Amino acid sequence: MSNHAKHPGFSMWPVPEPSGVHNKPTPIQDKLSPGKPAIRYKRHLPRGAISGAMMWAGGAGVMAVGFYFVIDGRKQRARLAAEKTESRAAILPCLQAEEDRRQVRVQYQGLKAETMIMSDVKTWTPGASVYNTDRHVPPTPTVKLGNKM
After folding, report:
1. What is the dihedral of CA 98, 103, 106, 111, to 10 degrees?
2. Nearest partner of 107 among 137, 148, 147, 146, judged by Cα
3. What's the rounded Cα separation, in Å, for the pair 84 and 90?
4. Cβ of 106: how many Cβ atoms within 10 Å?
5. Helix boundaries (H) for the chain
6. For residues 10 and 4, is the Cβ–Cβ distance under 8 A?
7. C-alpha–C-alpha distance, residues 102 and 97, integer Å
8. Cβ density class 127-142: b for 16+ within 10 Å, e for less
9. pLDDT of the residue at 47
10. pLDDT class for 86, splitting at 50, 70, 90?
11. Cβ neighbours for 17, distance < 8 A, ≥ 6 positions apart
12. DSSP letter (8 states) at residue 49
């Protein structure tokens, strides 16, 4: 069924007159049917809940609160780092004493092992310095591999 059968008298383009080849047809404008209300095409938008200035002020406020919390968090982390440093400095003498006791124990065990291993050599003096100096030379640190030293 064509458009003409549904709407009699309606045509998108009028039939051109055979008078001239160069004449272009003039389009016919569609109109509302009689008795129908007019179409509102103007913008009648309600006023927004908040203005742009209020949104800007709210964003600035949120950022200010965020910066406050960031700065406060940095200060708290600095305080905790200082407390950690102070607590380590406070227990440092105890840790050093433990390490000194461990070194003396390892040195004594080394001396016993040296005495046992070199007991067959008559010219060997256990515990004698292997360095040609009278100054104290700290022992070479031992590297612990697995469960054995």
Report:
1. -140
2. 137
3. 10
4. 14
5. 3-6, 52-117
6. yes
7. 9
8. eeeeeeeeeeeeeeee
9. 75
10. very high
11. 23
12. S
Task: Please tell me the distance from the alpha carbon of residue 6 to that of residue 106, in angstroms, as a whole number.
Answer: 110
**Tokens describing residue 35:** 């008795």
**Across the chain, how many H-helices and E-strands are there?**
2, 0
Distance CA 25, CA 49 (A): 51
**Alpha-carbon gap, residue 112 to 109, rounded angstroms:** 5
**135's tokens:** 């100054």
Q: How far apart are CA 136 and CA 101, in angstroms?
A: 18
pLDDT at 3 over 80: no
In this prediction, residue 35 carries a pLDDT of 80
Torsion of CA 127, 132, 133, 134, to 10 degrees: 40
Structure token digits, residue 114: 């040296």
Q: Which residue has the tokens 């227990």?
A: 91
Alpha-carbon gap, residue 49 to 57, rounded angstroms: 15
